[in-house]
Each structure stands twice: as C-alpha cells, then as structure tokens.
C-alpha cells in the first residue's frame, strides 16, 4: 500500500481517537521501533508503566504489515496481556486507524494446539483411560464431571479455546479432550478435520496484519520446526523479561513412571503385549531407582539410575520399531491411536537419550542440567533442561527477522547487558567503538584495533524511554536496615512486628509479597490476630477473585507469593503499601539456578551476580512495580531484608529499581501513622532531601 501516513501521524491519530494524551516516552519508543524495522536491526526498549508501550509497538507493527503485505507477530508472556491486546487494544486501534489506512487492520490470536479442544479426542476420551487409571476414585469422579461439562461446552463454543471456558477445568480433565502437535493426526485424515478448532485458528491467522501469540508458542515454533505461525519478518516481544524462562520451560524434558506407563499402554494397543510390557516394567524399575535416589541436581549419575534410564530408552525404541512405518491409508481411529502412541513413545525415548548424553562431557563443558524432583503428593520425576537458551535464541529467533523486545523492567543494575546476554545478544551497536576508544585512551591499543562484532552476531540497540511517573515524588523506598537478616525458619517476631506497624500506619491497603507460600501463610495467620483489617491470602480463592476483593476494599491487605509479584494491577488508594519480606534470590538448592551459577563461575564469571542477583533484581523490580500504576498513585515500598542496604550487591539491586526516595529510618515511614497515612502520600524532594513531612492528601 503506497503513501501510508508516517508513524507519528498514525500514533497521534490513535491516541486522540482513544481519548489519551501525547506521551514523550511513547512517541520516542514508536519512532525507535519504526526505525529498527526500517534498518532491520533488533531493538530492546525499557518502557515504564504508564508509557503506553502497547500502542508504541502496535502502530509501527500495523504500518509495517500493511506496507509489506505481511504479518507481524506480537508475543506476550501472560494471558492477561494477550487478552488485553485482542479484546481491547487492537479492536480500538484498528477502528481508529481505518480512516487513514483505507482499510481496517486485521488481527488474530494463535496459541499452541494443546490450548484448543480436539473434537476427535473428545469423542475417544471415554475409551482412553491412559491417565485416568493412575488416579484414585475421588479424582475420577471429579474428572468425569469435568469431562461431561467439556462435552456440553463443545456444542456451544465457537473457538474451542480453553481460556474462554469459565470456570476452568483441571489440566488432567483438559488433557482428555486435547492433543499436542505431535499427537495430532492431521486435518486431512482426521474425521473432524473440517471442524477442527486449532485449524480454524491457524486459518484465521493467515494473512492478518497482526498475529498475537505467547512466548511458549513462539519457542515451539522456533525450535520444533512446525512453523505454526504465518510467514513474518518482524516480531514484537512484550514482557520480554519472561522470554528466557518460557523458552527454557519449552526446552525442558521430564521422565517419570507415569509418562512411561502411558506410553506403554498406548503402544500395547498396537503391538504384541510382551513388547509393551517391557516398557511398563522399565517404568517400574525407574520408579524403584527414584525411591532410593536423593532429590536435587544430579552432577554424576550412578550406575543404577543410569541403567534404569537406559532400559527405558531401549524399551521405548523397541516399541517404536514394533509399530513400524506408516502403513499408508488407515481408518481415522487407527491413525489417531498410532499417532498418540508414537508421540508418547518418542517423548519418553528422546528424554531418556538426552538425560544420558548430558553426563558425557566433563562437568565444566555440559550444556544440560539434570535433577530429580520429589514434591509432596506427587510422584518423582527426572528433568533435563538447558543451562542457557541464548545460543538457541540467537540462531532461531534473531537470525532472519527483526525483533523488538520490550518490558517495564529490562535494565538490571542500570544496564541492559544482563538480559541481553541471556537472550544471546552480544555487544550493542556502537559499544565496540566505545570499548576500543577506552582501550586506546588507557594505552590498551589503537581504537581501530579494539573489539569487533563477531561474525553473525546480531545487531541491536537499546533505549530506555523512562516513565511518566515521578518516582522520587510518588514513592518512598524504605529498607528496614535495623532488622536482623532473614532466617530459614519462617518470619521472626521482629519481622511480624514490623509488618504490623506498617499496615497500621497505612490503615491496611497493603500488598505483601513473600518469598514463599509458607511465609505468606504464616504472616496471614499471625496478623489476623493483631489487625482488624480484612486480610486475604493467596490460595484461599482464585488469584483473580482475591485481587478483585483487594481492589474493592480500600482497607484490605493481600498476601501472596510469586504470581502476585508480577500479576497485580491495582491503581488508586487500595494499594498504597508494598511489603517485601526478603530479597527474592533463587533457593540455594534450585537445580537449574545453582547449575547456571556454577557454570558461569567455572568460565571465569561472577556466578552469583550473573544468576542469583540478576534473578533477584528482576523479581524485585517487578514486585515493587506494583505500587505505582497511575500518575496519581502515592505510597511506600517496604523491604524488610536489611541486606538491600548493607550488602555489597545491594547497590546492584537498588540500581535495578526506579529512583524512589530512599530511607532506612523507620520513623519516617511508621511515624506517618500519627496522621493515619491511609496509603496516599505527597512527597516533596529537593536536592535528595525530604523537605516536608509526608502528609496524607485526597482523604
């Protein structure tokens, strides 16, 4: 389409049509995205909450799609943002831009096949008790009711999208009516191929301007060669701080007795019972070895466990051989059974192979980590995951397309480099010259002989467009330096006293972010005896319902763990105090984090800073970001862990946070109780000093 309006014109039109106002950060980001797309360079953009980053990348994305007659992919980490884009942002934006573009922009959402109900699986679920037989009668009764409800829903839904089923069902129930890409027999031979919800979604995504997907789907599309996403040369990755974890999850394999048993049962319908029974027995042998093996990371596999994994590998291979090559045309039911069996067998075999091969290199040179999990109430499982996904992302994601990565939190310790390394990006464009000039200035060599970009290394630039919030005038970062370091045996009385005083000063209105569910529950149980405020705790209801009740009751408090660190958006006075019990380092026994930390150290790096401190900085920035959700918000972030003020790495962590006004004086915060703070503060900051007492406003 020739003579398209430029991005500033389109953005101004969209902002005006949607009733917004021009924001400098949003305009700067939109211009940078458009420039990166034109230059075919990657772009990393930190855009603080309130910037309006969705419009800042959607407008250039739509223009690019229309100009080149192609699709642009937008990937998110959370369902909430995905739904916001599809249900609100894109419909409104398309309508606003239509008069300038001579046709209305088009968009669609595309998820992995497992997210859509499979009509063929639905009709065979009653006969397929692979997983159901592994559970007790009470679970089966609940399962049956849920599957019956899914049958009813199948007659009503137009999309078959699991996210549209309210209330939802358990993963076990959903697996009875869905298939993975490897299990699908294909629309051509499936008796329900013409009614397939997943195929409808893929067809709808063909030829649209913007395809919205998620990081897991993007990772599958990159790594497994299925090419589910339509042809595209540009990707916008929102919530980019989650990309590494989601890609790692997709690349993680798991081996358990249950998965082996299911594979054997499926194979047993197609081959001689004796061959399938060998695999069942191999799974039982594996479970026996799990019982004797210690939980945690496995650096050196003993002969017994290695032998059990090898037996599983060989038995699964024998089943695949017995099934043999495709016999050609088959009845749909037979083709479906064959596909389901081969998918399960291949997963078991390939994971076993990967586990065994991971131990072949010397410890320093390994690229995978293996660990055994023994969670209470769940059967043991052996997992294998990559130490890093940077190489994979560099090759598969950044290779032949333009990628824009954005989030409110991308600079850790004041730099983009930590996350850039994890994504597989090298030095930023222009950084080589700066390094060379520094080397020359210090006598380290001529500028022309300085470090250069490696062959094939992606070209990328970074931009921080700031935030519309005046953090220094809107929030206090209070670190309780007088408290003892956090212990391992729950919250100490001093911590509980501190939380009580803070909540009383704020008259409730507090979001408590805890490093473990145990700590959150302990605080909730004990403080209910001390406080009159409604106190909600994660796990007592669905997270969505708890957040809704918290936002509606201005004196309520909400305590919880990981999902609340990133999933709460409550503007206004209902959230005026954020309490963090301790710096959210990964657990010392976390198998993946500890292995990554050791690997960095073995290659001469600072493992603690590169892995543990980076992990903590990211979560801390996300968690404290719950405080300010609009320009009118005021409040206090209280970090009870004194190490944020006293430890050497504290500076790195504080540099990862917005520039709040900081204090370690408890009287500055708790003294606000004299005026019943009620969570709404006015801060006056000049030359780094607090000139006026903090006083409540608007109450």
Structure, explained:
The protein is of the alpha/beta class and 699 residues long. It folds into 4 domains: 21-106 and 207-246 and 392-441, P-loop containing nucleotide triphosphate hydrolases (Rossmann fold, 3-Layer(aba) Sandwich); 113-200, no CATH class; 253-386, no CATH class; 471-696, Rossmann fold (3-Layer(aba) Sandwich), CATH 3.40.50.300. It has 27 helices and 22 strands. Strands 3-4-2-5-10-1-11 form a 7-stranded parallel β-sheet, sandwiched between helices. It has a 7-stranded parallel β-sheet with strand order 14-15-13-16-17-12-18, sandwiched between helices. Strand 20 and strand 21 form a beta hairpin. Helix 1 (7-17) crosses helix 3, helix 2 (24-39) packs parallel to helix 3 (53-68) and helix 12 packs antiparallel against helix 13. The model is unreliable at 132-138, 444-453 and 673-699 (pLDDT under 50).
Question: Would you give the CATH topology of the largest domain?
Answer: Rossmann fold
Could you tell me how far the N terminus lies from the C terminus, measured between alpha carbons in angstroms? Answer: 54 Å
**Strand elements, count:** 22
Backbone CA Rg? 27 Å
* Largest sheet: spatial strand order: 3-4-2-5-10-1-11
What's the CATH class label of the largest domain? Alpha Beta
Q: What is the overall number of helices?
A: 27
Number of domains: 4
- How is the main sheet built? 7 strands, parallel
Helix content percent band:
40-55%
Average pLDDT, all residues: 86
Strand content: 5-15%
- Shape category: globular
């Amino acid at each position: 389409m020739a003579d398209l309006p430029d991005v500033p014109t389109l953005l101004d039109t969209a902002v005006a049509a949607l009733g917004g106002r021009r924001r400098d950060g949003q305009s700067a980001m939109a211009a940078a995205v458009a420039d990166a797309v034109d230059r075919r360079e990657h772009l990393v953009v930190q855009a603080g909450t309130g910037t309006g980053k969705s419009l800042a990348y959607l407008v250039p994305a739509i223009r690019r799609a229309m100009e080149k007659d192609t699709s642009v992919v937008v990937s998110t980490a959370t369902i909430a943002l995905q739904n916001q884009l599809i249900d609100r942002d894109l419909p409104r934006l398309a309508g606003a831009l239509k008069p300038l573009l001579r046709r209305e922009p088009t968009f669609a959402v595309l998820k992995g096949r497992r997210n859509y109900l499979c009509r063929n699986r639905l009709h065979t679920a009653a006969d397929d008790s692979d997983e159901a037989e592994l559970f007790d009668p009470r679970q089966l009764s609940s399962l049956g009711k849920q599957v019956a409800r899914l049958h009813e829903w199948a007659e009503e839904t137009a999309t078959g999208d699991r996210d549209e089923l309210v209330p939802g069902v358990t993963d076990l129930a959903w697996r009875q009516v869905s298939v993975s890409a490897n299990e699908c027999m294909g629309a051509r031979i499936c008796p329900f191929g013409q009614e397939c919800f997943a195929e409808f979604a893929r067809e709808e995504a063909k030829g649209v301007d913007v395809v919205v997907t998620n990081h897991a789907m993007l990772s599958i599309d990159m790594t497994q060669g299925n090419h589910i996403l339509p042809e595209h040369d540009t990707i916008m990755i929102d919530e980019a701080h989650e990309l590494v974890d989601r890609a790692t999850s997709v690349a993680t394999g798991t081996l358990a007795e249950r998965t082996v048993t299911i594979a054997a049962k499926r194979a047993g319908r197609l081959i001689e019972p004796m061959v399938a029974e060998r695999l069942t027995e191999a799974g039982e042998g594996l479970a026996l070895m799990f019982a004797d093996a210690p939980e945690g990371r496995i650096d050196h596999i003993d002969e017994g466990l290695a032998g059990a994994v090898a037996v599983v590998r060989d038995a699964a291979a024998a089943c695949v051989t017995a099934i043999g090559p495709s016999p050609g045309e088959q009845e749909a039911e037979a083709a479906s059974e064959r596909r389901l069996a081969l998918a399960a067998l291949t997963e078991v075999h390939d994971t076993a192979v990967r586990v065994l091969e991971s131990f072949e290199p010397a410890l320093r040179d390994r690229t995978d980590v293996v660990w055994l999990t023994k969670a209470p109430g769940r059967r043991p499982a052996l997992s294998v995951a990559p130490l890093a996904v940077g190489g994979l992302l560099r090759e598969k994601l950044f290779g032949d397309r333009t990628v824009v990565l954005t989030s409110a939190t991308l600079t850790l310790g004041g730099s983009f480099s930590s996350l850039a390394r994890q994504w597989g990006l090298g030095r930023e464009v222009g950084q080589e010259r700066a390094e060379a000039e520094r080397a020359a200035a210090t006598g380290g060599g001529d500028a022309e002989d300085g470090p250069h970009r490696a062959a094939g290394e992606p070209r990328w630039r970074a931009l921080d467009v700031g935030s519309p919030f005046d953090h220094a005038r809107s929030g206090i970062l209070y670190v309780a330096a007088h408290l003892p370091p956090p212990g391992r045996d729950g919250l100490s009385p001093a911590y509980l006293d501190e939380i009580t005083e803070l909540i009383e000063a704020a008259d409730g209105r507090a979001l408590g972010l805890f490093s473990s569910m145990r700590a959150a529950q302990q605080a909730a149980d004990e403080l209910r005896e001390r406080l009159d405020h409604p106190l909600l705790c994660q796990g007592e209801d669905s997270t969505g319902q708890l957040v809704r009740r918290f936002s509606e009751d201005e004196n309520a408090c909400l305590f919880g763990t990981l999902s609340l660190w990133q999933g709460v958006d409550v503007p206004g006075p209902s959230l005026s105090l954020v309490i963090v019990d301790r710096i959210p380092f990964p657990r010392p026994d976390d198998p993946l984090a500890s292995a990554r930390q050791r690997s960095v150290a073995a290659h001469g790096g600072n493992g603690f800073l590169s892995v543990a401190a980076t992990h903590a900085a990211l979560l801390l920035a996300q968690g404290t970001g719950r405080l300010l959700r609009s320009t009118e918000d005021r409040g206090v972030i209280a970090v009870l862990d004194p190490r944020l003020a006293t430890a050497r790495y504290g500076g790195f962590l504080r540099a990862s946070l917005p520039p709040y006004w900081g204090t370690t004086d408890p009287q500055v915060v708790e003294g606000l109780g004299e005026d019943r703070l009620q969570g709404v503060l006015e801060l006056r900051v000049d030359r780094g000093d607090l000139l006026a007492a903090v006083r409540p406003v608007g109450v």
